[in-house]
Design goal:
single chain; 7-stranded antiparallel beta sheet; 4-stranded antiparallel beta sheet; elongated; alpha+beta; 11 strands; 58% helix; 530 residues
């Protein structure tokens, strides 16, 4: 490489590191991040995933990161701490990309592939987040590094299978990766008229070991059926919320698209037969199979689903530029500028969008105490047990809309004596939303049990507990509550109540008493605008 190219690489590497630092600290928290963290917290609290805490993901990621969360403790900015392990998974993927590119092509292709991958917008943004997919992708990449590291001995193949088993225990999307490897192996064997049957058997023998151990653990705890429902049955509900026409329109495209891919692969098959050529062909066809199958069969597709094959898109892209472009450096520089502009756009020019979640977490720790339930959408409040089992993400909301899952939020809140809920929003089911609006009042980014007292001084309580009367100037110190002198917080049973005093024109609220003691009031919202 000439001096100018080395300087360009150095500038891009430094820029990538600076952008990653900014994104780490300021890029908004995806709703999946606290959801995963709440499940990990369940392990630290002695709760069993699936039985005590709902989750529709495989369990290994939460099991592995739970000790880290336990060491971090209860913090309002806990998600920033939990993004730190994602730096390791990011480093593994980048390292694997370099090795794979060098094995498939050259040192030059490896260096440019690695640098460009670090600023590829979908990979850049998703690799920052605390999520299952990053550990899943790192395990997949490690498996490929072992798979391509030399002659495919039985030991190497078995180790590859073990790592793929770890990936399967992290995400069931590994099933598509296994199909992809099988398709690539079959096509490569047909084209080059050679294959390693023993290697395939060794990989297949290694894959089930880790998942089987995890299944055995949950079976020993009597929670195997809970795992099966959450990870398999619940996710299958998504197909019931789609019309058969919508499902089979894309599925019907799979055969013709695969026929085209196979025809192109056959026509472009290499004439020479060496190890590097076979691996190039294998991964090229595997990449095509992966994207066609994902697009045709996946119902909910997001950028994170493509993570395992972003490295190959970049590797093949760089290799093509090296082979065809007259001025590859111009192409790389232009691509880098384009990627950086997209990153700046999707991060809102790196404005700090972490504050809303951090502010809410600060109020969670201030308004509630360990052991007190808190109702949120899908685990956003992390450290408190949810009174309702199901989380309210896309699948649940659609299932409730179609009557496949019953809305039990109101009865769950009353049964568990839950006095704090997340703020109003679109994720609440209609009946739950009406109940929460009627029985909880804003105190900031959260709502506490209680309500504003009407002009006629009547109000109704649904969640029995200790309540206080408060005005803008502070707690009420006089008046008659249900005909008895009011002298401070009092236990109120469910049903109608009446409050009367001489200051009938002043706005009055009945509020869960601990919220008032802890410094919260509907008349002085805490950090409402964070």
């Amino acid at each position: 490489m000439r001096r100018g190219e080395r300087l360009l690489l150095l500038a891009l590497a430094i820029t990538s590191a600076l952008l990653r630092t900014l994104a780490f600290l300021r890029y908004r928290f995806d709703s999946d991040e606290p959801q995963h963290l709440h499940v990990a917290w369940g392990w630290t609290a002695g709760l069993l995933q699936y039985r005590d805490v709902f989750d529709n993901h495989a369990p290994l990621f939460h099991i592995v990161t739970a000790p880290i969360l336990a060491a971090v403790g209860e913090r309002d900015n806990v998600l920033l701490y939990m993004r730190l392990p994602m730096l390791l998974t990011f480093a593994i993927v980048v390292w694997a990309t370099y090795l794979l590119a060098r094995r498939l092509y050259s040192e030059r292709v490896a260096i440019w592939s690695t640098v460009l991958l670090t600023i590829l917008p979908p990979f850049f943004l998703k690799s920052v987040e605390y999520r299952t997919d990053n550990m899943w992708n790192a395990l997949w990449c490690m498996a490929l590094v072992i798979l391509t590291g030399g002659e495919l001995t039985l030991l190497r193949a078995f180790a590859t299978g073990i790592l793929l088993g770890f990936a399967f225990a992290t995400s069931l999307k590994t099933s598509l990766l296994l199909l992809t490897l099988a398709a690539g192996a079959i096509m490569t064997a047909v084209v080059f008229k050679r294959g390693s049957f023993g290697g395939v058997i060794a990989i297949a023998a290694g894959v089930p070991i880790v998942p089987a151990a995890i299944l055995a653990y949950f079976a020993s705890r009597g929670a195997l059926s809970n795992l099966g429902y959450c990870v398999v049955t619940f996710n299958e509900i998504l197909t019931q919320t789609r019309s058969p026409l919508a499902l089979w329109t894309t599925r019907a495209l799979w055969l013709p698209l695969m026929a085209v891919a196979i025809r192109i692969a056959w026509r472009k098959r290499p004439q020479n037969d060496d190890e590097v050529t076979r691996w190039r062909f294998f991964f090229a066809f595997a990449t095509a199979f992966f994207f066609i199958t994902l697009i045709c069969f996946w119902i909910l597709i997001s950028p994170r689903d493509y993570l395992p094959f972003y490295p190959f898109l970049v590797i093949f892209g760089v290799a093509w530029v090296e082979r065809r472009a007259k001025r590859p450096l111009m192409v790389y520089a232009a691509s880098a500028v384009f990627f950086i502009v997209l990153i700046a756009h999707y991060t809102d020019r790196f404005a700090n969008h972490t504050l809303e979640q951090i502010t809410m977490m600060r109020q969670v720790l201030g308004l509630t105490r360990p052991g007190e339930p808190l109702m949120d959408y899908k685990g956003e409040t992390v450290y408190r047990r949810r009174p309702s089992y199901f989380i309210f993400e896309y699948i649940t909301r659609n299932a409730m809309h179609r009557g496949l899952i019953r809305d039990t939020i109101a009865e769950d809140i009353v049964r568990s004596r839950c006095y704090v809920v997340q703020a109003d929003g679109d994720f609440w089911p209609p009946e739950a939303n009406a109940f929460l609006d009627e029985n909880f009042i804003d105190v900031g980014r959260l709502r506490a049990a209680g309500k504003l007292i009407k002009v006629n001084r009547t109000f109704t309580i649904s969640v029995p507990g200790s309540y206080a009367l408060v005005r803008k100037k502070g707690e009420v110190t006089s008046g008659l509550l249900d005909g008895l002198p009011y002298r401070g917080p009092r236990f109120l049973a469910p049903g109608p109540h009446v409050f009367a005093d001489a200051n009938e024109r002043d706005s009055t609220a009945c509020l869960w008493a601990p919220a008032l003691r802890r410094g919260y009031s509907p008349f002085h919202l805490r950090d409402r605008d964070f």
